[in-house]
Amino acid sequence: MPGQLLRVVTAGSVDDGKSTLVGRLLHDAKAVLTDQLSAVEVASERRGYDGADLALLVDGLRAEREQGITIDVAYRYFATAKRSFVLADTPGHVQYTRNTVTGASTADVAVILVDARSGVVEQTRRHAAVATLLRVEHVVLAVNKMDLVDYAEDVFDGIVREFCSAADSLGLATFTPIPIAALTGDNVVERSTAMAWYGGPALLEFLENVAPRAAAGVPARVPVQLVARPRTASHPDYRGYAGRVEAGPLRPGDPVVVLPSGQRTTVAGIDTPDGGLDVAEAGRSVVVRLTDDIDIARGDLIAVDREPLPAVTRDVVATVCWLSDRPLRAGDRLALRHTTRDVRAVVDGVQSRLDVTTLTSAAADELALNDIGTIRVRLAEPIVADPYATSRSTGAFLLVDPHSGATMAAGMITSATP
User: Fold this and answer.
1) pLDDT exceeds cutoff 80 at 108
2) Domains, the chain, ordered by start
């Protein structure tokens, strides 16, 4: 059986070869069905290519196949003998930065592609900023198209130095550089014989062995999605609280506090469709039974009663990636969607905006499409939140247009005033 699931996102500028890389990875890892490969070969022949264009394994939308670009997040699931993977290939165009945010929000590893001929460009810095802000645990700098620069070590080293400077500015502590040629398969699944000067792993080798994020030190949190009261003959008095364990583990007997009310009780049992659990790890959807019959509703949060506890707050400072054509300004009224709770919100002020060229922040009074900046938000009702640095799940939110329901921003809480 394959080991622990790893979530991977690929990002890069237009034509850096993301789809080709993913297609090559799937093909060389023996994760492509025969009929899929046959369809790609037919489509490639129709477009006049000599061989199969492996990028078409990922570019599944008809518009993408016709244009030769990626315009949506394409998810692929595959497994090797060592591990299972969910791989998200995101668009390179700046107007689709929102899709990159979507793909990176749940990723354990971000693979940022750079064309060896172009080096680090503005989109490279933007994607590195997104990966850093979303606290993706591992970042791979994949310098692609090394075959087009004669596999030159000095070209690779120069790009690594340039990216290292950007990483330092963003506070990205570590990253793993890998020289690859996706079209020929060099250092994708097998180590390249054309780059004997490189002594590191191939991309798949790295992905198979890297340790995924561990939410160590964060006590269990369970945002309540539904109060379960079946009222059946076999369960006349059953009362449980359904939700996903966003941090863990959670065990029967654990003392818990229900927020925002602050009522304290103990976990009596943890139920699933397959029976009771002795322990529920993060990511598991469960029904929690408590020893006391207390008032709990959707949007409340059950937390193990141990520090650090999340804050009950109506005032947050957050970093956001603005995803709308309409600028964000102080006074804008939106809906904030956080865990299982939706509340009315007003933007109290825009504090700063990140310049993705210089990677420095400057004071600003508005955010435009794809801008990354810091804002203050005042809420009509309290939410129960952690800083994003403590918990990605309970520290993240969306800002939504209350009339159309369109997602306007993805946000990461930096501080919350109790």
Assistant:
1) yes
2) 3-209 (3.40.50.300), 227-304 (2.40.30.10), 311-417 (2.40.30.10)
Position 231 scores a pLDDT of 74
Question: Could you give phi then psi for residue 55, rounded to 5 degrees?
Answer: -60, -25
300-336 in b/e form (b: 16+ CB < 10 A) is: bbbbbeeeebbbbbbebbbbbbbbbeeebeeebebbb
Residue 278's pLDDT is what? 96
Those residues whose C-beta lies under 8 Å from the C-beta of residue 230, and which sit 6 or more positions away, are 238
In this prediction, residue 237 has a pLDDT band, given cuts at 50, 70 and 90, of confident
Mean pLDDT confidence for 65-73: 43
Give pLDDT, residue 199: 94
Contact (Cβ atoms closer than 8 angstroms) between residue 145 and residue 181: yes
Q: What is the DSSP string of 247-285?
A: B--B-TT-EEEEETTTEEEEEEEEEETTEE-S-B-TT-E
pLDDT at 148: 96
Residue 258 burial class via C-beta count within 10 angstroms: exposed 0-12, middle 13-18, buried 19 and up: buried
Q: In this structure, are residues 394 and 384 in contact, taking their beta carbons and an 8 Å threshold?
A: yes
Residue 327: DSSP 8-state: P
Q: What is the DSSP string of 156-194?
A: HHHHHHHHHHHHHHHT----EEEE-BTTTTBTTTB--SS
Dmax (CA) for the chain in angstroms is: 74
Over residues 304-326, the pLDDT tens digits come to 999 989 999 999 999 998 988 89
What is the β-pairing status of strands 301-304 and 221-223? antiparallel
d(CA 320, CA 361): 13
